[in-house]
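Progress against Task 2.4 (sequence-to-structure conversion) is shown through the following example record, which the project officer requested during the mid-term review.
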Amino acid sequence: MINYKKYLPYVIAVFSFAAAAYLFTPQVLQKKVVNQSDIASWRGMANEIITYNEKNPDKEPALWTNSMFSGMPATSISVIYEGDYTDYIYKLIHKLSGSRPPSYLLISMIGAFLLFLAFGVSVPLSAIGALALTFCSYNLQIIQVGHNSKMVAIAFMPWVLAAVVFAYRSKSFRGALAGALFFAFALSFQIKANHPQITYYLAIMVLGFGFAELYNSIKERYFPAFFKRSLILLVAGLLGIAANINHLWPTYEYSKFTMRGGSELAVEEGKEQKGLDIAYATSWSYSPGEMPNLMIPNFNGGASGGELSQNSQTYKALKDAGYAGAEQAVKQMPLYWGPQPFTAGPMYMGALSLFIFILGLILLRGAVKWWIAVVSLIAVFLSWGSNMLFFTEFFFKYIPMYSKFRTVSMVLVVLQITIPLLGWLTLSKLLEESGERGEKIKEDRVKRGVLIALALTAGFSLIFALIPSLAGTFVSMADAQMPDVLKQTLVNDRMSLLRADALRSLIFILLGAAAIWFTYTGKLKKNLFYGVLALLIFADLWVVGKRYLNDSHFVKSREFENQYALRPVDKMILEDRDPNYRVLDLSINTFNDAHVSYHHKTIGGYSPVKMQRYQDLIDRYISVEMQQMGKDISGSKTIEEAQEKIGNYPVLNMLNTRYIVLGAENAPVVNSGAFGNGWFVNSIIGVNSTTEEIASLSKIENSLTAVIHNEFTADLQGASQDSLQASEAIVLTEYSPNKLEYKASSNQNRVAIFSEIYYPAGWKAYIDGREVKILRANYTLRALNIPAGEHIVIFEFKPESFAKGEFWSRITSGVLLILSLAAIIIAVYKRRKLNS
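Structure tokens generated for the chain above:
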């Protein structure tokens, strides 16, 4: 008979998590959504894909889009992946968790709860630890800006770690098998979130824990058992990973052609670059001077754009100057004064959590503590990026795949797990167990540890509460743009923010330390301590978290959709019924905004994984031509005048840039020089290197001449270089993201250039149904050698990686489900046998 009372505390904990998640974001109950800038950008870039799939449910889903950067795979944007049966469970978890974003918080808390339980922490203490782990400020910041995939990946991190711990720490081998199967599913879910960088950091943590267990197994002489459990975890992990082959394979395939795959130009120039440029990857590096943010949230001012109160000196200065909009102005002031370009906020871990973590470093012994300490230290050093370049360079050069990732400060998400984990293991040892090796930790040692931890945390906070000027200059890079009257007031207000938060952290640390000490010495009952600890943790993290995710960040769904409303210029452009041309919008940040892509096929957009060759084209030519265009039309008082001044822009022309947007309310400028969807050339320049290939674009008349690498020379045989005739033409007759159909007519064999991005991993070309080789021309475009006469030319995008990935996902996820079902049947059978 099932003892339901035994499970009641767990049920209460889960319902408490749901209550906490929805109380923090009650706006979702009013049908509001977070006004997430990155999600808004994603919706813009994904609209062509989503719309096509909705209108053509009976056809193959879109795997390519022309909406951004003149064309790119949909792999990193929005793809319907088939074949993974575990995906049904993953979607069920999200459905049961409810609305976004509270569902993310709920999933994270449940995983954290399981993680603490796996380490033997009591139910009430584990539940409080789940709050401490989940409500770190960074999670709320990334929800606010729209990094949803990152948040989901973070939310499933503790699930994976909990499964590993269950597998290693289970008393029976059957329990270890159950833990391994749990690991397979949890890892599969974490990978499904599709944020490889977070998965990479998780792998470092899992590997570190494995070494800790290896050390314990040798020391305690149970290495054979460790080896068996490691083996089943390895097999289970491979199954969990393999279930995701349907999207991992295409993603890996595409990565080789992106900025993360390295630059061919850099290699030819003698630079060792297997991934991202290290300067680009470390643009967002934490600095040693920012580390106090972990304990004092406004140590560096908080977010780049933050709110000041009406008691601030800046507000008073604005009012004194007679500025009518002072109330609105102080809601978005440049408060951050650290070295990063900009930031959504600090990596605040909780003042009390950090105190308990340091206490744990002092009091605890054993491999687990050292695992946590070493992994945390590695994360800190990696987060410093350019501020500790030799360490980052070592990882870039010698640690597999590390060079594929940017924004190195992101690695501090590791501390969101390690800080509360070690802290709560410490509380468990002090207050719930008999102590290390069966003996209670001596009071003198605990007292000394508490005093040292207080000196390092409360003492540090007290110093900066009294003398905040010790932190630095309080001057921001953004101050240069501010009126002189505000420069000093902002410095003073930043100093006040630091002082207030330092005092705040001091109070939380002192209250928490007192509660821990009195409970340890028996002067405070344990149940009362749980209530005090929960109150302190929640009050601390709740208030700071609300700075970065609050009611002001939620809007009605209709308001969110309004940002895609057609502008007058969009309506004018869309009157053109040609199925495929490109738009260059100069009224926005062209290469950092994907809103325009919602309605048009664009030259620009936003993606951290754009193709490297296209980025090279932007750097060498497109940006230069945009600047030249700006000079050409400068001083124009009307669109007609700007139209007359438009010059010749060879690279933009070959990309079929038909419309130039100068303003939302104005008519577009029509670029009559655009070459169209395809054209014949009568001259070929062969080159031997990538460097020559891109450099030659500045030396040719690319409407008549093509630059083609000599690797394609054999496929150019028979192509005529005689003068072109007016009757020779290529016309696009059918367009869809995955398929382009043309009618080509020529008097002789000709090389045809198409204003489509060359991507060898999936595009196939057919002339009258016969497959032909696609050539690369003009560094980034497709070309074909077309025979004389009239022909139907078709391009189709059917990457083998999708079909093969789907096939292997079906097999591996199917095996995983069968194994899980078998394990459940065997467990039920054995239980019934024991009870009979």
